[in-house]
Amino acid sequence: MKLLATAAAAAALVFVAQGAQAGATFDAVKSKGFVQCGMNGSVGGFGAPDAKGEMKGLDVDLCRAVAAAMFGDANKVKHTPLTAQQRFTALQSGEVDMLARNTTQTLTRDASLGLIGAGVNYYDGQGFIVTKKLGVKSAKELNGATVCVQPGTTTELNLADYFRANKLTFKPVVIEKLDEVVGAYASGRCDVYTTDVSGLASTRATQLPNPDDHVILPEVISKEPLGPLVRQGDDTWLVVVRWALNAMVEAEEYGITSANVDEMLKSDNPNVKRILGVTPGGGKALGLDEKWAYNIIKQVGNYGESFDRNVGKGSPLKLDRGVNALWNAGGLMYAWPIR
Amino acid sequence: MTTATESLPPPTATSGPIAWMRERLFSSPLNIILTVLAVWLVLMSLPPFIEWALIKANFTANTSQECRAGGGACWAFIGQKYRLMLFGLYPYDEQWRPLIAAIIMIGMIIASGMQRFWNMSLPIIWVGGLIAVAVLMWGGIFGLRYVEDTQWGGLPLTLILSTFGIALAFPFGVLLALGRRSRMPAIKTLCVLYIELIRGVPLISMLFMSSVMLPLFLPEGFSIDKLLRAQIAIIMFAAAYLAEVVRGGLQAIPKGQYEGADSLGLSYAQKMGFVVLPQALKIVIPPLCSLFIAVFKDTSLVVIIGIYDLMQSTKVALTDSAWRGFSIEAYVFVSAIYFIFCYGMSKYSQNLEVRLATGHKR
Amino acid sequence: MADPRVNGGQSAPPRRLSWNDPDVRSVVYQVVAVALVGIIGWFLVSNTLHNLSIRNISTGFHFLGREAGFAIGESPIAYGPENTYSRAILVGILNTIRIAVIGVILATIIGTVIGIARLSKNWLVAKLSMIYVEVIRNVPLLLQLFFWYAIITEMLPGPRQALNVMPGVFMSNRGIKVPAPTEHFAFDLAAIGFLLAFVLIFIMVNLAKKRQDATGKAFPVYRGGILLLVGMPLLGWLIGGAPWELDVPKLQGFNFVGGATLTPEFAALLFGLVLYTAGFIAEVVRSGIQAVNYGQWEAASAIGLSRSQTLRLIVLPQSLRVIIPPMTSQYLNLTKNSSLAVAIGYPDIVSIANTTLNQTGQAIEGIMIIMAVYLSISLSISVFMNWYNKHIALVER
């Protein structure tokens, strides 16, 4: 009885004003001076600590970009690693300001969780990984297989849907923690491990002893538009997150990189001028500094740079750009114009 | 008496090693069968284990392939990873701080076991110790770099969760116990409800509650970080069990003590504080020790909500692809750490029990 | 106030409300306490409702009727992804009960044996069981579960290289496969016979006791009980037509088909829970036996009973009174500890409720379901054990 009172009092002592009020996230972030970013913490390439314990990844870069836009300093981010189970409550309750945790945008999440997607920073799809020894060439041959999967994500539902649709049977082994589930697959407890293809590549490159012993099957059985989420009811903040992402993609389209951004300031292209704030207006409308996009590109890089560094050619994952190439290169990445 | 005769050795038939063995190992056919079985069990399990753990083991390898070659245990893995296991993600060059904090906490636990501190100095030691630990871990003052508690990890965190858990649960546990024995029906009902509700559900569901539901309980603009939430869950959990232990002690105090205090005209608070509780708490020291051991072991459950205690940082150490597949070694190592702590505490509490037997048990 | 003249002026002085009156204080304290709890409760509930409403989070249990859409690894009842969430949760509850019941029975047997072994005259046996108890009790259960799971999945070969221990029995990292009789209604009859046997044993024990009280003749209750337990199912099976077909597991594609399976998750959880709880039960049994007065041993040997007879007929029945309450809490612990299944992927109620709350976002409802299930199981175990405790309590003259 008194315990609860004390717990509440303790809470009062250690609370951080997070401003979960509707419409106040932007102001709260502005006043506390950093972005509290909910991320994965254990998927290499998207959000995981490197050898020095610093968070690195595509999702982490997005949070850094938002910080760069807000404060002109990409390092003003605090990361909160979240499990699949904690992520939505953490965002709903204001523990984090934004969620960039390879999360699929779905109707349910937009409609009944009080959250809203702010864009897509990686188009993914669910796939299967098997050992080469098994001699399986297609997911259609997986009848009767034992499948390792993590609970509580769309992955588990797609898996059941796919096998039902193809009249196949399977035995799931459902383990929440990524390292446990990968361990179960690696030890041969399961024939197959399923998650988003990017996650499979990440697992194969960073968590399995001999990456060449495993093969990712060709079937992609679902659409997984992964992207940042924010709480509903604060459109100012939603817009900042959305445009931080758009700015990175737009910069790639116009060839602005972190290396050449200072030269680009002298560019005559009106689009480039608008992006880099040489022609003012955009930043003020967002409630930010006119140099917001310049800061993102200077400190984080454009989308292509971030992709290559974290999951693409320059990373252990070696993922192809595939559908994540720019729209004019045959992909789906199509930024809304900054004007 | 002037000449002392040499005393003869005792007869070998009733004493000495042979007789001892005959008595304790081969006294009956059943006993012989049991002995043979036990010896077989030891022979089956011990030599392979020693061979794996010591003879074929590798202590110095620099790569996992080299380590595997021997076919035994790979203790080099522990050598590579022990800092990560013991301190989690705490900044590498600052790891002396959690080390000292851990030593302070172990010191506090040992001090609590010494009879000469069982007076008003014990609470002072605890409060001082806990503050020192907080300062060391967080830093931010005295020129120490500020370290967020999201970066704490490993053994110090396990110690923090259990020592703070028990220390902060103590006052609540005592109040709940007094409330449960109170004659006021409303207060009694509330305490009984709380205690039985908490004791009826697994700790893991309390932890889930703290990690998933607690944020929704608080008003807007409030947020407690993950570690504190888990700590609150552990405190609430420990308080219910503590209350039952203390209640056992209160029931063991003869009625005469209560009546004597009443007849002196002491108020309820004086009666409890000066007469009843000191005696009751002394009785329950052994069960308190076992409760502490239980809480210490139970903190390993925070793995499930993603907090970097000793168990979780061990699992993180295991995910390095360059050193995959040494889970058995890692688990043996961590088990040894837990075992040393828990076994030490349980042995000590058994000693206490013997020393404290002040005639309550007739 | 009564009129003082009525009872000859011998009345209490008129009571005034005063802080020095203990009754008044107690009322005030209680009102304050209840009010405090009420205020805190209201504060938390209103916050929660407010938070849920401003964030558009839907609430309520209507999601239980929706299609679950996820598969479950092992289930005692038929279940598929097309079933509802409520059926999935039922599967979880049944899985929890299954592990708890089997675990309690095995842990009691093993724990009792080890507890008696700790008091054995045989030095080696006593020492070995002491080492076992100390090691098991001082290492966290979760660690032991990880350990067993690692051993089972890493040490056993894949299904194609499965160890064929006995004809029809295959051990692999997919679990232990044993032949099982093919589905037949005769086995349902056998199960009914098994349940009937319990009822008959109950009646038999009571009759035997009455007869012994009346005539002093003992009835071989143990032999009769075992006979009934074996005979009744056999009878049911014979009535059903004595089917004699075994479903032997065969390797087909990725895995064995047919037969019955003990999955690695279930096995690791069962091993872990049983061995861990047995360590504690051993201590309970040991202290219970030691609580029996030594004079009982001496008296028993004086009338010429052997050590094992003394233990069975004299000491254990008396020590039960000491053993039952701590045993109850061990059973409760085992049940609550089975919730750690979530860490190694056995689909118990916690892991299924977790999945459900992740899929639907109904965190509060999911955790309420978990807590309600454990509370009901805990209460039922407590009630049953309290009844049993009363049943065997010493009737004091």
UniProtKB/TrEMBL annotation, chain A:
Extent of the signal sequence: 1-22
InterPro entries recorded: Bact_solute-bind_prot3, SBP_3_CS, Solute-binding_3/MltF_N
Keyword vocabulary terms for this entry: Signal, Transport
PROSITE patterns: SBP_BACTERIAL_3 (PS01039)
One Gene Ontology biological process: amino acid transport
Residue stretches making up the Solute-binding protein family 3/N-terminal domain: 34-264
Domain of life: Bacteria
Membership in a protein family: Belongs to the bacterial solute-binding protein 3 family.
Name of the protein: Amino acid ABC transporter substrate-binding protein
The species this protein was found in: Ferrovibrio terrae
Automatic annotation (TrEMBL), chain B:
The keyword Transport appears for this protein: yes
InterPro entries: AA_ABC_transptr_permease_3TM, ArtM/GltK/GlnP/TcyL/YhdX-like, MetI-like, MetI-like_sf
GO cellular component: ATP-binding cassette (ABC) transporter complex
Subcellular locations according to the entry: Cell inner membrane; Cell membrane
Any one Pfam family match given in the protein's UniProt record, by short name: BPD_transp_1
TM regions (residue ranges): 30-50, 95-112, 124-147, 159-179, 191-218, 230-250, 288-308, 328-346
GO biological process, one term: amino acid transport
Membrane topology note: Multi-pass membrane protein
Organism: Ferrovibrio terrae
Keyword Membrane: yes
Family: Belongs to the binding-protein-dependent transport system permease family. HisMQ subfamily.
Domain ABC transmembrane type-1: 155-349
Keywords, comma-separated and alphabetical: Cell membrane, Membrane, Transmembrane, Transmembrane helix, Transport
Main location: membrane
Protein name, as recorded: Amino acid ABC transporter permease
GO molecular-function terms, A-Z: transmembrane transporter activity
From TrEMBL, chain C:
Locations listed in the record: Cell inner membrane; Cell membrane
Gene Ontology CC annotation, any one: ATP-binding cassette (ABC) transporter complex
Membrane topology field: Multi-pass membrane protein
Stretches assigned to the ABC transmembrane type-1 domain: 93-385
Gene Ontology biological-process entries: amino acid transport
Principal subcellular localisation of the protein: membrane
Single GO MF descriptor: transmembrane transporter activity
Residue ranges of the TM segments: 26-45, 97-119, 131-151, 185-205, 226-246, 266-285, 367-388
InterPro entries: AA_ABC_transptr_permease_3TM (IPR010065), ArtM/GltK/GlnP/TcyL/YhdX-like (IPR043429), MetI-like (IPR000515), MetI-like_sf (IPR035906)
Keywords, alphabetical: Amino-acid transport, Cell membrane, Membrane, Transmembrane, Transmembrane helix, Transport
NCBIfam families given in the database record: HEQRo_perm_3TM
PANTHER family linked to this entry: AMINO-ACID ABC TRANSPORTER PERMEASE PROTEIN YHDX-RELATED, MEMBRANE COMPONENT OF AMINO ACID ABC TRANSPORTER
Family according to the record: Belongs to the binding-protein-dependent transport system permease family. HisMQ subfamily.
Protein's name according to its UniProt entry: Amino acid ABC transporter permease
Organism, as annotated: Ferrovibrio terrae
Lineage start: Bacteria, Pseudomonadati, Pseudomonadota, Alphaproteobacteria, Rhodospirillales
